[in-house]
Amino acid sequence: MDLKSVNARKLRYILSVTSENENLPKSLCLLMTLASDTYFKKGVNIHVFIEHMQRNFILTDVMKTGNHIRLERFINLHSLTDQTFDLEGEYYTLHNYDLDNYDRKFAIIDCRAQNDRLKDNTEFYIELKKRCNLLHSQGFVFIKANPWESLDNINSQKQYPEIDLEHIKWTGDASWFWFYMYDKHKDKRFTFDHTNKKYDFLYLNKQPREHRAKLYSKLTSKDILSNSLYTNWPARKLPAAYELPWAQDYPRYGMDQDIFEKPYNDTACSIVSETNDNDFEVFMTEKIWKPIIAQQVFVVHGNYLYLQRLRDMGFKTFNSYFEEAYDLDKDPDTRINTIVDVCDRLREAPWQDIYLHTKALRKHNHDTFFNKEKLSLEIDKTLNLFLEFADSSQVSS
To answer: How many CA atoms lie within 13 A of 329 on its CB side?
Structure first.
């Protein structure tokens, strides 16, 4: 590396020191300037590896319309060893930073359907455009953030504020709800007990969606849910004994990520009814993380190759105990038919034996979920998309 080319940027030197006669630390991490990358002195061989530590600045909410604190908690869980992130949620404090001293600068615009309350506010849009123009002139690149939603949902409904500029979308993907559920439940102590199963399935449907209606119709028409706890919100809700004790009148928004043990203790298997069933992304929500936290068996009605993505993230699934070929069905209707067949057969499954044989698997999933280092790897993938976008200046549409 040419040291002259890096100017004032920080360099990290990792020194590996070995010697026959001296008991020295195996590694030292120092910020220093050396004239050469290899030294020989008094029989000690010092190898210096120079790595560029890149500095990133993120304005986490251009107009202060979202929850920038939560976005910052997500970003701060990264494990990118060659990147630092300075985060600021207040536009009017940018003058306190030496912005020329950063390798990249990002500005996050909170873009959600819920911001439609601002759509007719002319003053808001004038200020937004003014800020974005100034930020762009200072070398900022833009992130339109709605990690609560999938790419499919974002593309199918208007997100506010509407502003035409080069940007990358921050969608939920597989990392956001893992982070959110981890952050919400990491310090809680649940009491799950899978010794006595009264019902076959726990099958929760809230937001009406076409693919959910299709699966629900086929499961009910074949009487597969006759011994199950299931909802078709708002027409059919859980019995009071299985509803959240702190929210018997279950609200439309705000408590989907809460966990009550009883429904998971009394049902053998969760039918996870995910948000989308398309074949171009995998969007994971609290719906998969709740049975994983509960160490419960699950079947997933979601995106094509959803289970494969879950395994790629370090989790295990139940293909050694029942068929999971539905994950390979690219056609959504075929996938539904396969899931219905699987659920029909699972009604006669020896659940006591399955829970005994899958104890280690289910504990592995639970422990992987609460492993901050594993979560950080997925967060790294999200942040790397932003870094690559900034470096390439290409729009993700």
So the answer is: 17
**Same domain? 88 vs 211:** no
| Residue 67 one-letter amino acid | N
Closest listed residue to residue 233, CA positions, set 256, 263, 201, 206: 206
CA-nearest of 357, 355, 298 to 326 is 298
Instruction: Quote the CA–CA distance of 168 and 321 in Å, as a whole number.
Output: 41
Give the DSSP H or E segment for 109: strand 104-110
pLDDT tens string 329-351: 999 999 999 999 999 999 999 99
- pLDDT, tens digit (0-9, with 9 covering 90-100), for 149-179: 999 999 999 899 999 999 999 999 999 999 9
Order of all β-strands in the sheet with 297-301: 229-230, 199-203, 267-273, 297-301
**One domain for residues 239 and 131:** no
Q: Are residues 171 and 222 in the same domain?
A: no
Reduced to 3 states, what is the DSSP secondary structure of residue 327? helix
Residue 51 has what pLDDT?
A: 56
Query: What does R_g of the chain's alpha carbons equal in angstroms?
Result: 25
In a domain, 392, yes or no: no
Domain extent for 301: 187-369
**Continuous segment of H or E residues that includes residue 38:** strand 38-41
* Domain count for the chain: 3
